[in-house]
Amino acid sequence: IVFFFFFPGTWRSCPGLACTTSATWRGRPRRFALPLMVTIGNFAAKLCVCQAVRVGRGRGSGRGKQSGRGHKGQHARNTVALGFTGGQTPIFQTTPKHGFKNPNRLEYVPINLEKISAWVETGRLDKAKVIDIKALWDSKAVTGNARNGVKLLGVGAESFKIPINIEVTRASQSAIQAVEAAGGSVSVVWRNSLALRAHLKPHKFEVIPKTAAPPPRLAPYYEKFATRNHH
């Protein structure tokens, strides 16, 4: 594989490459680097690095006095604000906005009863044991970023007939009714990100951390779920 690169230089010489004089600039020779053939063998070789133009070093350099910026003004002082469009109404003010992104929203990894039924029938999940998040994770029933937990959904609830005991972070009402109608049970357990990581990958922890209490905005859900069978 062969690549061709062209590295233009200033009137100063470019070390490491053969240069040739092709023009003059203010009475001094301007030099250009010849095309460099780059192969796999010399791709990591030191390439020509041309020197930056020094400004403010006298009128003879062509970039002295005002350093090429001219007299005063916005462009001379480099004070153009981000998004400034010359005084007209900025686009972020003329464009309508719809909705918002809730910074406190928790994204759960969904798992449907239809998939759990298929995993149990194929032997990937053992219905004789409690199916918790780690069992779902190890069997690849849930994938992706599960830092907030797993939510049980009711897709396939009409044909779900397997009695299982499942433990998830949250569960929909239709999924709970389908599991209990089949003779199983659903329990929800809150785990923060650290406790959930220790639950999924205990081999990475010397001491398993304790599970933190749910935050105040989520506590009513777990308290209500814990006492719903005692009424």
Unreliable sequence segments: 6-22
Sheet with most strands: 3 strands, parallel
* Percent helix: 10-25%
| SS elements, strand count | 10
Number of distinct helices: 7
Q: What is the distance, rounded to the nearest whole angstrom, between the alpha carbons of the first and last residues?
A: 76 Å
Strand order of the largest sheet: 5-7-9
> Class by helix and strand content?
alpha/beta
Task: Spell the H/E element sequence.
Answer: EEEEHHEHEHEEEHEHH
Shape: elongated
- What is the strand content? 15-25%
- Rg, Cα atoms, Å: 34 Å
Give average pLDDT, whole number: 83
How does this model look, in words?
The protein has helices spanning about 75, 90-95, 115-120, 135-140, 175-180, 195-200, 220-225, and strands spanning about 1-5, 20-25, 30-35, 35-40, 110, 130, 150-155, 165-170, 170, 185-190. Helix content is about 20%, strand content about 20%. It has a three-stranded parallel sheet with strand order 5-7-9. Strands 6-8-10 form a three-stranded parallel sheet. By secondary structure, it is α/β, with parallel strands linked by helices. The longest helix is centred in the middle third of the chain and has 9 residues, at about 115-120.
Question: What keywords describe this structure?
Answer:
alpha/beta; three-stranded parallel beta sheet; 10 strands; 21% helix
